[in-house]
Each structure stands twice: as structure tokens, then as C-alpha cells.
């Protein structure tokens, strides 16, 4: 039991970070102190009341914002999916293909190390050997991993869009960071299989995989969306496996079932499978973000190339900026008392980005980072 406690420590640290940040709960670590020291730490009972009132106010405000943003979230999702059918289709295709191609090879590590066995395996030697083929799978595995890539990818993208107001800077992982995530996920599959094959105790494997998963998340992601999707993956994936294993035991898999050689603590598989699934969140999520951002860049360049031959925006004459309506394009305005004040709406520049151009060029009006970049590139 003491060894099992180590497993939850990394995830408690991550969960406490987001729990405190979003007001869902507060992780408070008890501190041993002398009874007489308590009045010094908490001078009056009012301090505790103020803390409770502040936390209650924070939670109430959060619930109100969540209620008011339901419609906004739905509209963001609809706009993201429907703005560009080409982008939506290509993203779905690429994420599904990534799962179809990469998933079976990751799963093959567990087959090679004897973690699981297929009733009728499909093997391919590739760079392996006859006794140790590089790929061991069955007919439905690629499709299942393809579906996983599709779902995790869209959960990340739509989650980023929904929370874009609270986090203006959309995650933009670099190619090395994306490759690092996939490599670390691959290493975790290999390491878990190697440890199992070497006879390492399942609790030790669980603790090791949990540390690797938590470290990978901190290194690769650290977003609230990533934590939610990874947690859903860590529990949703094994639940799907429970269904598949149950069908296999009932001989309902058309002789293409499978089973774990160690049914572990669950009666289906060992618990160390959960952190392996968890790390799939940031690995696949960063890949999804990279593909999405890449498609955005390519399609925006194509759109700009197409509209160059068309008449420009009639509102700004294709200058992409208009006089600031707050200061009438001056950069300053007369405040109370007749004193001159700098306009904060346009940062005293006298102009702002033309809102009509967003629709004309098919750009995202909620891309705050893109708007700031465009403003900084405009000459005074």
C-alpha cells in the first residue's frame, strides 16, 4: 500500500495546480505547529471567514461565467469546425492516419514483450526477424488507434478554442517538441514492456510509468485542456479495453480477440496501463496542435493569394487598419477637466485593426496573438 501511494503523488501535484487555478478545489497541506502559534498564523477568526468568502465568491463567479459562456462555447466549436471544410477534413484525415500508422507499432512493443497476446495475430517482419517481427497486430487495431487519434486531436483543438478567452496565447508546439512527445510516448511503451518481460513487480512498473507520464506532461504540455484530455484518455482507453476483453472472453471477436498475460489488479489488465494511456494525451495533443497550426498557415497563405486579384476591403481600402473610434484617429482625447489623455484603445497610435477584414480574408477575429502581431508590423 505504501508503494501504491507513490503513484498518485505526481498527479496530485498536477491536479492541485489546476484545481487552485480554476477554483474547483484547494489542496492544503497540513502543517504541524504548536497550539500557541496558531493565533500568529491566523490572528482572528475573521481571516478564515474572509478566506471562505473569497473562495465562495471565486466559485460563484466561475459557475456564472461557465453558465453564460455555454452559448459562446458552442458557437466557437461550430465556427472552428465549419469555417474551413478543407481544414476540418484534412485535419481529421491526418490525425486518423497518424493513429493508424503509429498505434500498431506502439502496441507491437507489448506484443513483443509478452504483455498481451492476440488469438490470430497479423505479423510483418520489416526490420525485425522471423522470430521477432517488427509488427504484431490484428485487423481491428489500426482502426481503433485511428479513431483514438481522431478523438484526442479534436478534443485538444476544440478545448483550446473554448478556453482561448482565458488563455489568449494558443499553444504552438515546435516540431522538436512534437517529435519529443512521440519519442517519449514510444519509450514509455517500450520501457513498460521491457520491465514486464524482466519480471519487475507490477507496482514498481506502475510507479515508474506514473512518474514518466507526469514528467512528460509537465515537459510537453502544462495546459488545463491537456490535463483534462489526458485524464479522460487514461480512464476512457482502459474502459474501452474492458469492453474488448469482455467480448474476447465471450468469443464474440470473430476469433480476433486478445488477452493480457497478466490480468493484474483489475481482472483485465495491470493498473500500470493507465499512466501509459495518460502520456498519450500530450503526445497526440501536441501533434494535433502542430498539424492544426500548420494547416492554418498553409490555408491562410492560399486564401491571401486568391484574394490579391479581388477588390480590397471597402472599409479600409485594403490597408488593414481604420482610425481609432475612441480618439478619432488622433491618439489622444480630452478627458475630464480639459486635460489631454493618451488613448489606451489604440495605444496612442491613432488606428486599430479593421474588423471588416477578418471576414474578407477569412481570418479568426479571436486570434489575439495574430492581431497583436499584425498591429506590430504596421507602420506608424
Produce a short descriptive summary.
The protein has helices at residues 2-22, 38-41, 45-68, 70-82, 85-112, 141-162, 175-197, 202-220, 224-249, 273-307, 356-361, 368-377, and strands at 116-118, 122-124, 135-137, 258-260, 321-323, 332-334, 340-342, 351-353. With 380 residues, the chain is mainly α. Strand 6 (332-334) and strand 7 (340-342) form a beta hairpin.
Structure, explained:
The protein is mostly helical and 380 residues long. The chain has three domains: 11-68; 73-300, no CATH class; 315-377, no CATH class. The chain contains twelve helices and eight strands. The strands form four sheets. Strands 1-4 form a two-stranded antiparallel ribbon. Strands 2-3 form a two-stranded antiparallel ribbon. A hairpin with a 5-residue loop joins strand 6 and strand 7. Helix 5 crosses helix 6, helix 6 packs across helix 10 (273-307) and helix 8 packs parallel to helix 10. The longest helix has 35 residues, at 273-307. It is elongated. Mean pLDDT is 80; it is low at 21-48.
Secondary-structure map with pairings?
Elements: H1 2-22, H2 38-41, H3 45-68, H4 70-82, H5 85-112, E1 116-118, E2 122-124, E3 135-137, H6 141-162, H7 175-197, H8 202-220, H9 224-249, E4 258-260, H10 273-307, E5 321-323, E6 332-334, E7 340-342, E8 351-353, H11 356-361, H12 368-377
Antiparallel strand pairs: 1-4, 2-3, 5-8, 6-7
Helix pairs in contact: 1-8, 5-6, 5-7, 5-10, 6-9, 6-10, 7-8, 7-10, 8-10, 9-10
Transmembrane segments: 139-158, 178-197, 203-220, 227-247, 267-288
Keywords: Membrane, Transmembrane, Transmembrane helix
Amino acid at each position: 500500500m505504501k508503494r501504491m501511494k507513490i503513484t498518485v503523488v505526481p498527479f496530485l501535484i498536477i491536479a492541485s495546480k489546476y484545481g487552485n487555478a480554476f477554483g474547483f478545489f484547494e489542496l492544503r497541506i497540513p502543517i504541524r505547529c504548536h497550539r500557541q502559534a496558531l493565533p500568529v498564523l491566523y490572528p482572528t477568526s475573521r481571516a478564515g471567514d474572509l478566506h471562505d468568502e473569497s473562495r465562495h465568491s471565486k466559485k460563484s463567479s466561475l459557475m456564472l461565467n461557465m453558465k453564460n459562456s455555454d452559448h459562446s462555447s458552442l458557437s466557437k466549436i461550430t465556427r472552428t469546425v465549419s469555417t474551413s471544410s478543407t481544414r476540418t477534413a484534412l485535419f481529421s484525415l491526418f490525425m486518423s492516419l497518424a493513429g493508424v500508422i503509429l498505434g500498431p507499432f506502439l502496441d507491437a512493443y507489448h506484443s513483443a514483450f509478452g504483455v498481451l497476446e492476440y488469438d490470430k495475430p497479423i505479423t510483418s517482419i520489416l526490420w525485425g526477424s522471423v522470430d521477432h517481427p517488427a509488427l504484431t497486430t490484428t485487423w481491428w487495431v489500426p482502426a481503433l488507434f485511428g479513431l483514438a487519434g481522431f478523438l484526442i486531436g479534436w478534443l485538444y483543438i476544440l478545448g483550446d478554442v473554448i478556453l482561448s478567452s482565458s488563455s489568449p496565447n494558443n499553444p504552438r508546439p515546435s516540431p522538436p517538441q512534437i517529435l519529443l512527445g512521440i519519442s517519449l510516448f514510444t519509450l514509455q511503451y517500450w520501457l513498460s514492456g521491457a520491465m514486464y518481460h524482466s519480471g519487475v513487480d507490477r507496482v514498481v512498473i506502475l510507479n515508474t510509468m506514473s512518474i514518466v507520464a507526469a514528467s512528460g506532461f509537465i515537459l510537453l504540455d502544462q495546459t488545463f485542456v491537456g490535463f483534462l484530455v489526458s485524464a479522460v484518455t487514461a480512464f476512457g482507453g482502459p474502459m474501452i479495453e474492458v469492453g474488448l476483453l469482455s467480448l474476447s472472453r465471450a468469443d464474440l471477436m470473430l476469433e480476433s480477440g486478445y488477452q493480457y498475460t497478466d490480468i493484474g489488479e483489475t481482472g483485465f489488465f495491470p493498473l500500470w496501463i493507465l499512466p501509459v494511456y495518460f502520456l498519450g494525451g500530450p503526445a497526440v495533443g501536441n501533434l494535433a496542435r502542430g498539424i492544426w497550426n500548420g494547416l492554418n498557415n498553409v490555408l491562410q497563405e492560399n486564401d491571401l493569394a486568391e484574394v490579391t486579384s479581388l477588390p480590397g476591403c471597402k472599409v479600409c481600402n485594403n490597408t488593414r487598419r481604420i482610425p481609432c473610434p475612441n480618439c478619432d484617429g488622433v491618439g489622444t482625447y480630452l478627458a475630464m477637466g480639459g486635460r489631454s489623455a493618451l488613448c489606451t484603445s489604440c495605444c496612442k497610435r491613432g488606428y486599430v485593426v479593421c474588423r471588416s477584414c477578418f471576414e474578407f480574408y477569412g481570418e479568426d477575429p479571436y486570434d489575439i496573438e495574430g492581431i497583436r502581431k499584425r498591429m506590430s508590423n504596421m507602420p506608424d
